[in-house]
Amino acid sequence: MTEHVAQAVRTLGTRSAALAWGEVPDRVRDRTLLVVFDTLGVMMGGAGTPEVQAFAVRHPDIGPAPLAGLGRRSTAEASCWVNGTAVCTLELDEGSKFARGHPAAHVIPAALTCDDDHDGTSWLGAVLAGYEVAARFGRATQLHRGVHPHGTWGATGAATVAARLGDLGGDGVAVAIDAATALSIAPHFESAFSGHPVRNLWVGAANVAGLAAARLAGAGNERVDGIAAHTYGDLLGAFDPGPLLVPFEERFEIMGGYFKRHAACAYTHSAADAVLELRDQAPLRVEEVDSVTVETYEIASTLNRVDWPSRLAAMFSVPFVVAVTMLDGEFGPAATDESHRSDPVVRELAKRVAVVATDEFECGLPERRGARVTVQMRDGSRRAAEVDQPVGDASDPFGWDEIRAKVTGLIGNERAVVLEKAVCELEGGRPVGPLLEAVARS
Predict the structure, then answer these.
(1) Where are the domains positioned within the chain?
(2) Phi, psi (rounded to 5 degrees) for 119
(3) Beta pairing partners, 431
């Protein structure tokens, strides 16, 4: 098994090193630019939270890599820690339902550690290669129940982008990928459910691991042992190397990614969308609601807590998301602030929300991530709405207009315009320096 995995990693490394931006289909290039814009906007928005700012001041001001949205630069490792934390803090980062995680968040912080004069098209090619590697490892890995995907297989994407930016070639990329699979952490969903801030460090840890793996490869290590068979397989779950061998031209994983409009765990989104449909159908007076039943798939049903000691814990609670969405008609970054978490109306309504797993929705995974919300009114009437896919899903993803509005809402029009311009100008071969400046802008 390990030799089979090792050979798959070697093949993937060779293909990743050879992936040329100019040879990528137009639709894939456009999606890559959109993913970069969305991810950087979310990262800069996350950097505006008190928790990320407090974390960032513990890192040095000396170094070349930008600390997104903070007007500062620091060391490569520090930027990975801070930017990796920022990108997932608001729970608005792009993801892949097929990889069951967030490839872009595990790649772009590492990509921001390059020199200012690095060629823009080379940088974009490295980012795309990193995304494709990470998402393929996500498909290949079936994590054990309770294991959170952050900080696990995503390190392979960070290693890929770091190795490509370091011009290590196919063998070097393969060595870096293999080493990254041995640097995985073992994160548990409980940290997210309970709202422990360590959960937001896991993406940073994977990006730092990717840098270290690429440096090991650059230092002359030539070992490719198929370590993923043991780490992602024996320890963290089950591993099938088959998805690693799918050629890029046959399936670009980035085309199967989704974008998020609700600032909460993706498993809550279908329920939130169903609540919004109910509100659109007719006015919904919360004081007249007797009970709410959310039917959904199994892993989403585990997000059923009604105690939210922190912003993060609230983002991982279907009852909280349903209650606030029912009251406010939206679920943005402000939805998880202290005023919402302590609101007695929110607390009382959330206690009336039951979350149930059904075979109907479980059998739809991973293609369909649906939910049905049924509201029982005190007068005996019932109202229901069903959502087959969350808004922004890979089957109908957001385009430039939607992402532009999202990023503008997070960081303001001026910074959003500068950021979008810097991202799009990379295609002309412009050095990445202006992008790094736009990202660092406070």
Answers:
(1) 2-260+396-440, 266-387
(2) -65, 135
(3) 119
Say if residue 262's pLDDT is above 80. yes
E strands, 265-352, are: 289-296
Q: Does the model's pTM come out above 0.90? A: yes
Shared fold status for 2-260+396-440 and 266-387:
no
If residue 239 lies in a helix (H) or strand (E), which one and from where to where? strand 237-239
User: Is the CB of residue 270 less than 8 Å from the CB of residue 322?
Assistant: no
> Pick from 101, 139, 342, 382: which is nearest to 246 by CA?
139
So what's the pLDDT on residue 113? Answer: 98
Cα–Cα dist 93/91, whole Å: 6
CATH value of 2-260+396-440 in 1.10.10.10, 1.10.4100.10, 3.40.50.2000, 1.10.1060.10: 1.10.4100.10
First to last CA, the chain: 49
β-strands 289-296, 353-357 pairing: parallel
CATH of 266-387, one of 3.40.50.1240, 3.40.140.10, 3.30.1330.120, 1.10.1740.10: 3.30.1330.120
**Residue 63 CB burial class (10 angstroms; 0-12, 13-18, ≥19):** middle
CA distance 36 to 133: 16
pLDDT band at 429 (very low <50, low <70, confident <90, very high): confident
Separation of alpha carbons 136 and 242, rounded Å? 9
